[in-house]
Amino acid sequence: MSNKLTGYDDTIVALATAPGVGAIAVIRLSGPQAITICNQLFPSKDLLQQASHTLHVGSIVSDGKIIDEVVVSLFKGPRSYTGENVIELSCHGSPYIQQQLIDACIQAGARLAKPGEFTMRAFLNGKLDLAQAESVADLIASHSAASHQTAMQQMRGGFSRELQALREQLIRFSALIELELDFSQEDVEFADRTQLYALIKTALEVVQHLTDSFRMGNVIKHGVNTAIVGKPNAGKSTLLNTLLNENRAIVSDIAGTTRDTIEEVLNIQGILFRLIDTAGIRESVDTIESIGVQKTLEKIKEAGVVIYLFDVIELTAADIRKQISLFEQDGINYLLVGNKMDVLGESEALAKFAGIPDILFISAKDHAHIDLLKDRLVQKVMSGDINTEATIVTNARHYAALQSVLQALQDVRTGMDSGLPGDLLALDIRRCLHFLGEITGEITNEEQLDWIFSKFCIGK
Ligand code: GDP
User: Fold this and answer.
1) Confidence label for 34 from pLDDT (cuts 50, 70 and 90)
2) ipTM of the complex, rounded to two decimals
3) To 5 degrees, how large is the angle CA 99–CA 452–CA 205?
4) How does pLDDT run across 60-107, given as a tens digit for each residue?
5) Binding site annotation covers 23?
6) Is 20's C-beta closer than 6 angstroms to any atom of ligand 1?
7) Residue 321 and residue 241: Cα distance in Å, rounded?
8) Domains of the chain by start residue, with CATH
9) Ligand 1 pocket: which of 229, 231, 233, 361 to mutate (most atoms <8 Å of CB)?
10) Separation between Cα atoms, residue 351 and residue 220, nearest integer Å
C-alpha cells in the first residue's frame, strides 16, 4: 500500500445519520484534530482532558450562540472506528441544527468528508480489510434478514479469514519454489510437489465453492426475478394476492431495480422475490407454447424462477408434460403448481398427474399449501438450505477476482501435470496471490480505492 495514502493530517466531518428530520441525528468527526475542534465549540468541559470512550453532555456554542444541547462521544485513536480520533455529536434531529453544527465544525477547522471516507480511513489504518469495508456498504443497504446476515458475517471477517489462510499457504509454497530457483544448478526441490499438488487441489475446491456461492449471493443481495405464468383463469391473480397479503416486502429504491418492470416484491424467508411484469405476462400468455410475443418469453427466460400455475380440473397430464418439455428446452427454472385443490382434492389430483414428479397442489383461494409453496420457492433458488453462517460471495468485484484466482490455480495444476519448471509455476502462483490480495486489499491502488469508496454515502 502506498504511504501517500495513510497518515491523514486533516479532520473530516459529516452527518452520519440519514438526512432529514429525526428525533436524533449524529454528526461524526474523524482526524487528528477531531477532539480539539469539538473542544473549541464545547465550553462546558475541557474535552482534551477526558478519557477515551466517554460521553459528555453540554452545549455547542459557535459565534457566541448556542446551537444545540448535545451528547459528545469521544474516542481516541487508534481505538476507534477509523483508527483516528473520533467525535460523535448526538444532536436534536432538525436539518437546521445538523447544518449549523457541521458548519461550526468546518469553521473550527474540519472539512466535509467525501463519500465513504470514514470507512476508507478505517481500511487504510488497518481497522478493516477491503472485503470487510465493502460489507459495511452492503450492511447499510441490506433489505432482508438474509442480506443482513451475509453482510454481517463478511464484516466480521469470515470471508477474509478464509482467503487469508489460502494466501498464507500459497505464499509459503511460492517462497519455497523461488528458493529452488536460487539453487537451480543443483536440481533440488524444496517444495514438496505432492504437498503442493494437494494444496492446489484444496485451494481449487475452496475457490470454486466461493465462486459458486456468488449465484446464491446475488439472490440474497438483489433478490430473484420471479414470474407467475399460466393460462387465463388458472388463478394467478388470486395466488399473487394471497402471497402479497402475507409477504409484501417493504422496499425502497434498490440498486438494479427498474420500477417499470418490477411490480411487486415478496419477502419469503428473508429472500426477496421480485415479481416481474406479472400484469404483462398475465395478459399476453395463453399457454407458453402459443406465445407469439417474443418479449414475454424473454421476460420469462430472464426470471430466476418461474411459477407455472395450472387449473387441476382443466389441464391434463399430457398438457403438463408438454409444458415441462418446453421449459426444459429453454433451460427455465420452473416450479409446477396445480391450483384449485379445493375442487379436485389432493389425492385425486395426485392420481390424475401421477408420474409427473414435483407438482405442488395448492388452493390459492383457500390459502392451502401456501407455506409449502414458499418453501419450494426458496429451495428452487437457494439449492439447499440457506446457511448464512457459510461464506457467500455477494460482491461482483470479489467474484471477478475469484474467477481469476480460479483460472490461475487451474494453470498451476495443468503446469504441474505437464512437469512445468518451478520458475513458471511460481509465476502462476504469484498470479493467484495477486488476485486474492485484490479482494482483501493487500494489493490495491488509489484509483481502485476511490472507486470502491465512492459507492458509499457521505458520513459512512
Ligand atoms: P388468472 O386469470 O390466472 O389471474 O386467474 P384468477 O386469479 O383471476 O382466477 C380465475 C378464477 O378462478 C376466479 O374465479 C377465482 O376465484 C378462481 N380461483 C382462483 N384460485 C382458486 C382456487 O384455489 N380454488 C377455486 N375453486 N377457485 C379459484
Assistant:
1) very high
2) 0.98
3) 145
4) 999 999 999 999 999 999 999 999 999 999 999 899 999 999 999 999
5) no
6) no
7) 28
8) 3-128 (3.30.1360.120), 145-217+395-440 (1.20.120.430), 225-382 (3.40.50.300)
9) 233
10) 37
